[in-house]
Amino acid sequence: MDIEDADIPFDTQDKDIKPTKNSYEVDFKVYSPLDIQKYQSKTIDEVSQILGQPPEATAILLRHTRWNKERLIEQYMDKQEELLEEAGLGDEVATRCRIEKAPAGFMCESCYIDDDPDMQTFAMKCGHRFCVDCYRQYLTTKIKDEGEAARIKCPGTDCNRIVDSKSLDLLVTDQLKDRYQELLTRTYVDDKEILKWCPAPNCEFAVECHVKQRDLLRIVPTVTCNCSHLFCFGCSLNDHQPAPCPLVKKWLKKCEDDSETANWISANTKECPRCHSTIEKNGGCNHMTCRKCRHEFCWMCMGVWSEHGTSWYNCNRFEEKSGSEARDAQAKSRQSLERYLHYYNRYANHEQSAKLDKDIYLKTERKMTQLQSSSGMSWIEVQFLEQASQALQQCRQTLKWTYAFAYYLARNNLTEIFEDNQKDLEMAVENLSEMFEKPVDQLAGLKVEMMDKTSYCKRRRIILLNDTAENLKIGKFCWLY
Fold first, then answer.
1. 394 shares a domain with 283
2. Per-residue tens of pLDDT for the chain, all 481 residues
3. At a CB cut-off of 8 Å and minimum separation 6, what does 416 contact?
4. Is 149 inside any structural domain?
5. Are residues 230 and 276 in the same domain?
6. Are 299 and 202 found together in one domain?
7. Which one of the listed residues 108, 272, 285, 315 is annotated catalytic?
8. Is residue 374 part of a domain?
9. Beta carbons within 10 angstroms of residue 186's beta carbon
10. If you ran DSSP here, which 8-state letter would residue 71 be given?
11. What gap in Å lies between CA 459 and CA 245, rounded to an integer?
């Protein structure tokens, strides 16, 4: 076992760890800043007793070794003087860390004021003395403007001594102390590979997860913060299951490089395949009906919609051209572009549909009171709309990334199974999305059907993610790029 593996940052009980229920889920735990500060204080006290160093010096030593207790104790026993020097503690000097009046003949090397009998000064154990006003201004600049805390050095020329918390407490305001502590907490999390801050705006929680960087091609470590934000612990992006982080990075880079093409294919209008009237997509569902000729078709493949509920449904698969159609370089290049457009178009469509589905829900929510009064249903009974909306958001997020995943897959039996699972989930999502867009006065009669379809969508998503996660872990998938 690596030292880092053994150096678990918090005392955890089995009941505190999120149990793994499915193959695609990982164990994780969420901590508040107060949790982290309590652990820091506990660790500092424990190590301080072992080393015989004061708590403020022990804290500096722990930060120097990135809070690896075993490594610190080992280095301290082997090369104490060298470690103290490297950490910014150095040799003890016969001076005390306290504010006192300026000694005779003193001149502050920062503001050059001298001969002031009432001037207060401060020096750490390195002996570099400055007036209190300059020292305070220096610390304020470091903490408030530069965001520094863990490695604030003495303002003396070429001095490597680190300003400890005890010295800082003598000099700065309570408000600045709070900012200093906040920065130290952030440094602690940043120093630990198994901890990351939740990337949601204004969120103060940190997440612990033991999935390592070397495992990110086999595991997609999606975690859920206490603020309800889902993100990938590996790359801090929003949940991108089932696609692994290296693949996501590659896909986003490709989409960025092909931005002009992507802009072209993600246009919001298309022509009716029968009468060629311009049609705008204003909902999440892909079932389109031309207002002019009433032709029903699929927004994605432009095929007849009636075939999408049968075994003929093949909208999610990219059909390779025969070899004779791709003999020369130009044909191969065109086929490569068509293949990319197939997957990107569906990727972008699910992203757009998720936003449109959410907009529809927000509009529907305002009519839920009307649904209550017209149907006699209680507020709790109409919550099936919210559950359906959340399921649509989650499933479309998954479907979006299945197309990035499928783009890089080499064709084999596993690919067929993956696309079958993808197809089943996509058909279920389209059915639920279509029901979701019905007029409010029809929603009461669709309640049972919508609840059943919501549950079915969730189950199909779990099946897809479980199957993909299991094959990823054992390295069964073959990649094209």
1. yes
2. 343 444 445 554 444 455 557 999 999 999 999 999 999 999 999 999 999 998 989 999 999 999 999 999 999 999 988 999 888 887 554 445 677 887 877 888 888 877 677 788 898 888 888 999 999 999 999 999 999 998 899 998 888 899 988 888 889 888 899 999 889 998 899 888 899 999 999 999 999 999 999 999 999 999 999 999 999 999 999 999 999 999 999 999 888 876 545 455 444 567 788 887 767 766 667 888 888 788 888 887 788 888 776 655 667 776 665 544 444 555 566 677 778 888 998 999 888 877 775 676 677 677 677 777 777 788 888 888 888 888 988 999 999 999 999 999 998 999 999 999 999 999 999 999 888 888 888 888 888 999 999 999 999 999 999 999 999 999 999 998 7
3. none
4. yes
5. no
6. no
7. 285
8. yes
9. 17
10. H
11. 24
- Establish whether 225 is a catalytic residue: no
Domain count, the chain: 3
In a domain, 466, yes or no: yes
Provide the domain limits for residue 22: 1-30+193-239
Nearest-angstrom CA–CA distance, 363 and 361: 5
Pick the last residue of a domain from 128, 144, 177: 177
Report residue 313: phi and psi, to 5°: -60, 120
Q: Which amino acid is at 202?
A: N
153 and 207 share one domain: no
Considering the domain architecture, whether residues 203 and 231 belong to the same structural domain is answered as yes
Kind of pairing between the strands at 129-131 and 206-208:
unpaired
Measure the CA–CA gap between 24 and 6, rounded to whole angstroms.
24
Do 450 and 358 fall within a single domain?
yes
Identify whether the C-beta of residue 129 lies closer than 8 Å to the C-beta of residue 121.
yes
CB 243 within 8 A of CB 404: yes
Instruction: Mark 192-215 as b/e (b = at least 16 C-beta within 10 Å).
Output: bebbbbbeeeeebbbbbbebeeeb
The two tokens of residue 60 are 């500096």
Measured distance CA(462)–CA(455) in Å, rounded = 11
Rounded CA separation 215/220 (Å): 9
Place of tokens 């293949």: 339
Tokens of 439: 């007029």
Measured CA to CA, the distance from residue 476 to residue 472 in angstroms comes to: 6
Residue 339 domain-assigned? Answer: yes
